[in-house]
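Q: Focus on the chain.
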Amino acid sequence: MEQLKKYPKYKNSGIAWLGEIPEHWEVRRLKYMAYCFPSNVDKHTREGEEKVMLCNYTDVYKNDFITENMKFMVSSATQQQIEKFRLREDDLLITKDSETSDDIAVPAYVTKDFENVICGYHLSIIRSYIDVSGKYLFRLFQHKKFNSQFEICANGVTRVGLGVYDLNNAFATYPPLSEQTKIAAFLDYKLAKIDRFIRKKKQLIKLLNEQKAAIINQAVTKGLDPNANMKPSGVEWLGDIPEHWELWKMSRAYKVFSSGTTPESGNASYYENGTIPWVNTADLNDDILYESRKFVTEKALDKYSVLKINPKGTLSVAMYGATIGKISILDFEATTNQACCNFSQSNILVDEYTFFWFIANRPEIISLGYGGGQPNISQSLVKTLKITTPPINEQNEIIDFIKQQKNQTNSIIVKIEKEITLTQEYKTALIAEAVTGKIDVRDFVIPEVIAEEEGYEDLEEELSMSAEGEVAYENEDME
């Protein structure tokens, strides 16, 4: 692996967050490196204006690169706006307005000239001068300490905004153009390799989760004995089940079913200083739920008779909305909102077995719901579900087996997630070190042909040498 090295000589930059920079580098205000101008083109289509495609806030916030494969929204603009805000290759787009200062000056690089795509409202264009690389500026804006200049000066009440003055007067490192180009190419190569590595790791997590789901499904629908005699379940999506298992309707298997409600949100007496946990579907986590985020008062309970306190051990499943099908076992007494179907007290089903059964069969349960694009399930539907019911001792064996398998898989996933976190930290550090001159990449040779799998072993070695995300140097440590 080619190790990174320092420049031979450094000088004080005079900027606290920047520290020392290579002796031949300069520090300039951004206005001496690029033309910075905010867009005033909104998403509305107006009569008399020309139809255009609009690159908007979300396009920039969610993507590092603006490419021709993206789907832009339709809008309109004047000819003057089109000429000024049309996207050009090597432009940099940044977010100039947002709900929080953390989301200010998030960059995206424009990869080609666009004939009919223009920069939309809530964004600014950074168009570099002839002696500045737009790709270098893009990487500079990805440096958190450089970007923090804009977080500090962004202001507003309901939304924060970044003014042209503060943008123009930000301090930026200015190497010679040849080095800017080299730094940008080096980071393109290194970060592409890192991003491929992260994608592979995330794909592995996805596969492990699919494997875990398959194990749960097999256990609660077919049992643990591969040689067991089978019989038709009579339920199409369940298929065959072990011969000695039964099917029980949920309405017969569980004694208590309930839902809840949402007390009037404008009445503070229902919530202020409340001590009674109030669970809503956003709390449900496909696991044991140990606490709620919101509470209601005794007055709310007195006002709403449907707002009942469910005992510890209650199973609660989301009936509609973004979390439809999510389920939790409540580890505390709690009320819920109207989108939760709660059930408890069974003599023939172990709660954890039912919990795993609902997770395994969630897609099929949701498909039985009603409604258009976003189906709903109901308490009535839950009551009619027929659940595979092994003997109690076998249910407990299945629970223990699933927990063991889950723990093994989750342990692997945790390790991979730590790897991803370390890699992302290394990526952040690498950008910072390159654009501030803490590493010298002038002699770095980029391979002419880069294979999809290229460099994984090198990257793993690089990460292991980088001391928890810090860049490794050929010589002594640099702070």
Notes: The CA atoms of residues 331 and 401 lie 22 Å apart. The longest strand covers residues 50-55. The chain is about 35% helix and 20% strand.
